[in-house]
């Protein structure tokens, strides 16, 4: 105890342990001193494709390559479709048309000097064979049904907006005024329009089998604004197509079975009447 007190008194009453601590600090700061080891930094985890295992990296790279190739092909086809006639379009015109029509057709009417100023409504009626014999339905306005699905809808369906309209434009542009096809696309447009009509008719129960359908369009000019002095007739002009016999290819999925059931019940009813 006395010796400890003496050592403490010899130092001017200060404790010796802080001096030892100061000496160790000076030793660390001295030139040539070896710094203490620093703890290792946490290893960063790789993200994206690099974070996947090798087999998944290969699959992801192949998928991205395929998507990129498909996108480049589509852009090239659309460019050749809207480009002026050239050597490539002359040699590969049919291939380009098969890629573009009917889903990716480009319509530039919005930018035409005289945009479309007409309302076109597409109607359909059907010949139905049931227990009471054959009857013809009234005209059904398919365009009006699509319009009802679009009005007031903040996110209208692309089908309601464009399927019927583009399908009818496809038919009109591939047929002459006598409804005769003017090229190879004529038959394709007829099948496309028939399937659209049968898809809508299959949603209703007419009590029999639809054997024939007929379509027509009612085209009326848009009335000019009140301040205009232009005189335009808004009376609709009809274009009536011939009757088409319904084939199994025209029926949507599941409609063929319902058609057979209806045909069987109709035949059974006629036999019972006899």
Radius of gyration: 40 Å
Shape: elongated
Helix content: 40-55%
Indicate the mean pLDDT. 79
Low-confidence stretches: 8-12, 265-274
Structural class: alpha+beta
Q: Classify the beta-strand content into a percent band.
A: 5-15%
Q: Quick one: biggest sheet?
A: 6 strands, antiparallel
What would your notes on this structure say?
This protein has 274 residues and is an alpha+beta fold. The chain contains nine helices and six strands. It has helices at 2-10, 17-29, 54-82, 87-91, 93-100, 142-150, 158-173, 185-201, 255-273, and strands spanning 118-130, 133-136, 140-141, 208-221, 237-240, 244-245. Strands 1, 2, 3, 4, 5 and 6 form a six-stranded antiparallel sheet that branches. Strand 1 and strand 2 (133-136) form a beta hairpin. Helix 3 crosses helix 5 (93-100), helix 6 packs antiparallel against helix 7 and helix 7 (158-173) runs antiparallel to helix 8 (185-201). The longest helix is centred in the N-terminal third of the chain and has 29 residues, at 54-82. The chain is elongated, with a radius of gyration of 40 Å. It starts with a helix and ends with a helix. The relative contact order is 0.09.
């Amino acid at each position: 105890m006395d010796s400890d007190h003496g050592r403490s008194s010899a130092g001017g009453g200060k404790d010796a342990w802080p001096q030892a601590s100061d000496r160790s600090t000076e030793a660390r700061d001295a030139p040539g001193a070896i710094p203490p080891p620093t703890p290792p930094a946490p290893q960063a985890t790789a993200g994206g494709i690099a974070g996947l295992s090798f087999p998944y990296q290969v699959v992801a790279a192949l998928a991205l390559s395929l998507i990129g190739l498909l996108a480049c092909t589509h852009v090239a086809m659309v460019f050749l479709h809207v480009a002026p006639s050239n050597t490539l379009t002359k040699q590969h015109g049919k291939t380009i048309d098969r890629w573009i029509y009917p889903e990716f057709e480009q319509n530039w009417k919005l930018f035409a000097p005289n945009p479309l100023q007409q309302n076109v409504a597409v109607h359909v009626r059907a010949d139905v064979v049931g227990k009471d014999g054959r009857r013809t339905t009234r005209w059904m306005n398919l365009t009006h049904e699509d319009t009802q699905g679009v009005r007031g809808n903040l996110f209208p369906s692309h089908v309601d907006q464009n399927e019927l309209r583009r399908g009818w434009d496809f038919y009109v542009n591939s047929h002459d005024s006598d409804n005769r096809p003017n090229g190879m696309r004529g038959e394709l447009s007829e099948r496309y329009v028939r399937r659209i009509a049968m898809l809508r008719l299959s949603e209703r129960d007419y009590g029999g089998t639809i054997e024939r359908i007929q379509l027509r369009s009612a085209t009326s000019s848009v009335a000019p604004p009140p301040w205009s002095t232009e005189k335009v007739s808004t009376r609709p002009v009809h274009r009536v197509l011939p009757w088409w016999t319904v084939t199994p290819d025209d029926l949507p999925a599941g409609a063929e079975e319902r058609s057979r059931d209806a045909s069987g019940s109709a035949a059974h009813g006629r036999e019972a009447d006899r």
